[in-house]
Amino acid sequence: MLFKKVVRFITFILMIVGAVFNILAIAGNSWENINVNTKIQDRSYHIGLWKVCENSISSKCFNREKTDALKATQAFMILGFLGYLTAFIFCALLHINKNFTINLLGVVLNTSALCLLIGLSVYTNQVSIREYKYGWSYIIGWISFLLTLVAGLLCYTEHFEYHSIK
């Protein structure tokens, strides 16, 4: 019984941190960074899913050109977040109905992880420019995927029985 409670607690904490990271990745304007050095002045640009921002004294931002691959990345990242919302609903149902199975929560979390994986992979292979450096938004997007995957897999460990070795 204690093992079940610990697994559920760890899963819930991973879900919270993963959801926060997913929100920050979606909203962050630092998926890629580039520094442009000219004789007149140096400029750095931060590229997000939605905007490109010039990081100078006055931080100017403009909308990013939307290619099909970028739209796919945006859609799958949002679907991943909607998976988190669904997972939180299932967590509430787990506390209300003790007979509700945690395996369904694992399916929802693994589906959410799959959406994040697809979105991040499309960005990596189709959208990103190889000469640019990846930024913090991109990195925490991948961390969000890993946390979701681990939380989803933890849901399936609840039914294992552990025996001590004598």
From TrEMBL:
Entry GO terms, CC: plasma membrane
Domain of life: Eukaryota
Keyword field: Membrane, Transmembrane, Transmembrane helix
Pfam hit, one: PMP22_Claudin
Broad class of the protein's primary localization: membrane
Annotated transmembrane regions: 7-27, 75-95, 102-123, 135-156
Topology of the protein relative to the lipid bilayer: Multi-pass membrane protein
Name used for this protein in its record: Epithelial membrane protein 1
Species of origin: Hydra vulgaris (Hydra)
The encoding gene: EMP1
